[in-house]
Amino acid sequence: MSQKVRVRFAPSPTGPLHIGGVRTALFNYLFAKKNGGDFILRIEDTDQNRYVPGAEEYIVEAMNWLNIPFDEGPENPGGFGPYRQSERKHMYKQYADQLIEKGDAYYAFDTSDELNAHRKDDEANGKTFIYNWHNREKLNNSISLSQEEVETKIKNGDDYVIRFKMLDLKNEGPEGTISTTDIIRGHVSFKKELLDDKVLFKSDGMPTYHLANIVDDHFMKITHVIRGEEWLPSVPLHIALYQALGWESPEFAHLPLIMKPVGKGKLSKRDGDKMGFPVFPLAWKTAEGDIFSGYREDGYLPESVINFLALLGWNPGTEQEFFSLEELVATFDLDRVNKSGARFDPEKTKWFQHHYLQEMSEDDLTNQFAVFLQNRFSVIQNDSDESIKISRFTRNDNQILKTIVSSLKERATFVSDLWEQGSFFFETPNSYDEKASKKAFKEDTPQILQSVLEILEELEDYSSASLSEKIKGWITSQEISFGKVMMPLRLALVGEMKGPDVFDIAFLLGKKETIKRVKNAIVFLS
Hints:
By secondary structure, the chain is mainly α. It has helices at residues 19-34, 55-65, 92-101, 112-124, 147-155, 209-219, 235-245, 269-275, 302-310, 325-331, 346-359, 362-376, 385-394, 399-408, 415-422, 434-440, 445-458, 464-478, 482-494, 502-509, 511-525, and strands at residues 6-9, 38-41, 105-108, 161-164, 177-182, 186-191, 199-201, 224-228, 251-255, 258-259, 284-285, 291-292, 342-343.
């Protein structure tokens, strides 16, 4: 590649960024970095009717969270700005006019009512209305009208659009194709006679996506257009526009769709709602107050999102499944992107998340859990006993909290799982699991717990090892089964039959709290 690689991610700010859009951004980023190129953000906001405030900021925040920032964009402009199409609108009209002067485009004055009438007529005859070579001379445009009529309409301020003349019957027959080589799909070809005359410039003075896209890609020196499969039908128009304007076309690569976990069709927001997983990188709140979940807010690490997205449609050619971002950059190749759709697997995303949580340092995981606890207990008054207890556990340098995290980490997939598995470290049980109680709490249990209580109160070296030695020694000396002691002791401390080693729990709770919980169990049994 003699020319420097330049790729762009060009979303429309019409709402939250779908996870499929995130994958498109990721593949653009990986390709650019693999080839020493630039990754550009361009906001395609020509459709002002669908513009949603906050959507652009959402896109930037999502990319920053995922650690795939842009080399150029609205907030960090390079030498090819502006990077919002609404700020570039002065550029587009001249190229629409240029196409008209060359005979490659024309004015169309058809009203919505007129076009709807044509559609209904064709439907009544079992046809589909297409505005193109076979009927354009019968419609209300500068091809069917005289030059004087056209000039009068424009002078009178009649609304018009500018359409591209996809097939020029004076210079070519109705046959013919537009072909190109797609990096992912190989040779693709389109019959010209089946293509419509797309609108390039709208009556509101704004370009359509098609014209703005071509002009921007040309002047931003985009070398590769990597986008979703849904844009494949636009390829013939875009190639024809490049040819008509006398510009060199970039290379195209159309990524496979991300498919539903079950059934047919591409992944949608409804699938996430129905099956309980996010389809957006960050949570999104609509103007109506509806809230949609995001991977960040659901507790996913950015590394896990990047890893599972990279393998949706791309195959490294090896058995390796876990990739750092640096490894993805080094390994990524568009030639190994699949043509067929990639099925989304919510459980596989959790599998990646579990792996990366286990890979976190205990210091980082402890800090994140401390933040979780502080947020959860933020309603507790600062002068309460509970606040003092929680602050003791949530100091970032607290070894006790780090040890708690270490004891729970292996079974956790999300930071919130540490709470689900270990909430008893922070909240005294106020009830005991009914099924476990029937099995563990017997007639002599209060006397047994009373003996354990006496051992606890007398113990000076309050450590896991010392607790184990003293209590197990007492059990052996009394010639009673370990289950008669260990099960009710765990229930007293936890409220359920779960958690790490019971002596580790007692040590981490501290002597005062452990004694309190054993006394509570004795009172309950009495």
